[in-house]
Structure formats: C-alpha cells, structure tokens
Write a structure and sequence with these properties.
The chain has 371 residues and is mainly β. 0% of the residues lie in helices and 60% in strands.
C-alpha cells in the first residue's frame, strides 16, 4: 500500500503455476469466464538459468473459472508464447497467439503464429501466420473493417533489420486474415487502437525503431507522430477531465503520461523510470470521472544481469494527473488484465522470472477491492 487514503487494493485469491508467463487474456464465451496464459519458456534442468535460456517448446494454457477460481481447461501448442488475443468476429470466437521462438537453443526465431477458433467447445487451429519473433496481436475495427495487427521482428544488438519481418496489419476478407499494410519497425512489441475526436489512432511500440502514432486516413494508416525514447513497450489510452490521455512505457527509459493538444500527444506527467512493461485501465464506477491505471514493471538492469523482483503500481486519476495509491509485488511482471465474475472485479497478473532467474514463477489472480 502506498497511500492510506487509497480507494483501491488487491487481495490475492489464487496462484497459477506458470513458466515465463508473457500474457494474460481473460475472455468469456457463452457466459463462461476463461483465461489464456501465453508462456515463453521452461527451465532446462542442469543448465544455468537466464532470460535468454530455456526450452521454448511449451504450451499456452487456457483456464476456465469454476466456482471460486480457475482450473485448467485446455493446452495449446504455442512455442515461445508471447501473447494471446481473443476476439469475436461474425459470431465466431478466435484466439490469436504469438510465438517468439521455438526449440531449446539454438532457437528458431520464425515459428508460425497460430490463430485458433473455438469450435464445439474447444480451440482448434484456424490459420497460421508466418513471421519472425512475434510479440503481440491487437484486434480492432475501423469503419466496418476488421484488422489484426502483429508486432514482430528482432533486429538490433548487431542483428540487421529484416525487411520481411516488418510489423504488419492483416485484414479480414470474410474467410481469413490477409496482409494489408506493413509498419516501419525493427523489434516490434505492442499496439493500441483508440479513438480521439472522431479519429482512429493506432499506437505502435518498438524496442529499436522509433515508436509512433498512426492515424487512419480512410484507406490506410499514416504516421501522425513519432514518440521520444527507445525500448517502447506499451500504451494505455483513457479519457478523463474532458481530455484524452495516453500513457507510454519505455522499458529502459521512462514512463510518461501524455495529453492530446488537438494535433498530437504532448508530455504532461512523468510517472516512473525504467522497468515499465504493460498497463491495465480500471474505469471509474458509473457516473465518476477517471479511474485507476495499473502499471506492471518487468525488470531493472540488463538481460545479462536482470533484477526481476519489483513493485508494480496502481495510480488513481486525481483530476489533473495520476497519483500512486497502491503497490504490489511482481517478479518479472509482463502483463495485467481485469475481468469480472458475478459482479466481482478481478485482476490477472503475469509473472515471468523468479528472483533466482528461473522461468518457473507463479502468476497471480487478485480480487480488486474498492474501499
């Protein structure tokens, strides 16, 4: 707890036995609550632990809510899992999964990423997407059209930019997803589509190339703004106090709150230093302004000597900015997502790396308490 006047707190209700969890994706189908957890790798007995080690021929776990918590429902072969994105399209339910790598060293950095469809009560493969070091999918719609964006690539640190590994947007053609547009990239990490003053904007985060904001021009996305800072990781957009706000995390740099000035987003408030990895927005109760921002912190230090045991933070909108009101332990935290069961709000948090640098680290489910 960071502030005794906080109006929010977390109560742990369950731990999930995950290994290098990189994403948590809650979703419902026919009124049933599920949770998909993408996992990057497993520890190899007898080998030295480390962020770049392990066996990546692992499964994505799908859990189903039963009474008071999650139980295992299905395992999907998703090697080097980095993300899972659930969406419903034309009455059909899909789960897009992103695979960073496969094998246990040397690694194949171009395994196909699979889109699954929920058919007869189970997920089955629907479409494979060939890519390189896939990180994140993002599904969104524009003017009745449906897009699925893939952040990918692993250029940098001596590796050249691969023109065939550009981050890319796919469009639904009524039967499958087909390539639509590439985005200048090197080591793609994240996307976020949102509306500002009637315009559809698409935020893109890249670790090496400049992160940027794209705007829909009626036929394609074009660059609106190049964002400052390298090691881009994640965004969160919200509307409060009559303005549009965008939070932008740079893992090795700073996390900032930006404000829309009518033409672009400008720096407004510095939130934290290095470590920011992902966000979740908790809207205010009906009739109230603002809400709470969950910032999940990943590591301090370097890949060679990481410090994963950190405090992640919940901020509250105070009318003119964000103030930290609650903190919670994470260990290589990579993702957070809110969901509700029976009117009770919960938060799933993915942990990916233990203090001893092993991948086997529990992810956690919390009940969100409003006081």
């Amino acid at each position: 707890m960071m502030n005794p006047s906080s109006a929010i707190a977390l109560r742990e209700i369950q731990r999930l036995p995950t290994s290098a969890a990189r994403a948590v994706e809650p979703f419902t189908i026919h009124g049933v609550q599920y949770l998909a957890v993408a996992q990057l790798s497993e520890d190899i007995p007898g080998t030295a632990p480390g962020m770049g080690a392990g066996d990546s021929d692992v499964d994505l776990w799908v859990y189903r809510w039963e009474a008071t918590g999650f139980t295992e429902f299905q395992r999907l072969p998703v090697p080097g899992g980095e993300d899972a994105e659930f969406f419903t399209l034309d009455g059909r339910h899909f789960l897009a999964t992103a695979s960073l790598r496969s094998g246990h060293g040397p690694y194949d950095m171009s395994p196909p990423s699979v889109i699954y469809e929920f058919v007869n009560g189970r997920f089955e493969p629907f479409q494979q997407i060939v890519g390189t070091a896939a990180k994140q999918w993002h599904f969104f719609g524009v003017q009745g059209r449906h897009f699925l964006a893939l952040a990918q690539g692993a250029a940098g640190h001596g590796a050249p930019v691969d023109g065939a590994a550009q981050s890319i947007l796919f469009e639904w053609d009524g039967e499958r997803f087909v390539p639509f547009q590439t985005v200048e990239s090197a080591w793609g990490y994240n996307w976020l589509a949102f509306e500002v003053q009637g315009r559809t904007l698409l935020a893109y985060a890249d670790h090496i190339a400049p992160s940027r904001l794209l705007a829909w021009n009626g036929t394609a996305f074009e660059t609106l703004q190049v964002l400052e800072g390298t090691s881009g990781r994640a965004f969160c957009h919200f509307h409060a106090s009559g303005a549009d706000w965008l939070v932008f995390a740079n893992l090795l740099g700073e996390t900032w709150l930006l404000r829309w000035n009518g033409a672009q987003f400008a720096p407004y408030q510095h939130l934290s230093g290095p470590g920011g990895r992902e966000f979740a927005w908790l809207p205010a109760r009906a009739g109230a302004d603002g809400g709470h921002l969950v910032q999940v912190n990943f590591i301090h230090g370097s890949r060679e000597a990481p410090i994963p045991e950190l405090q992640s933070v919940i901020y509250r909108w105070q009318g003119d900015g964000l103030a930290p009101v609650h903190s919670f332990d994470t260990s290589g935290g990579t993702d957070a997502a809110a969901f509700t069961v029976g009117g009770v709000p919960y938060l799933a948090v993915a942990n990916s790396l233990s203090g001893s640098l092993h991948f086997r680290t529990d992810s956690r489910i919390y009940q969100i308490l409003h006081t």
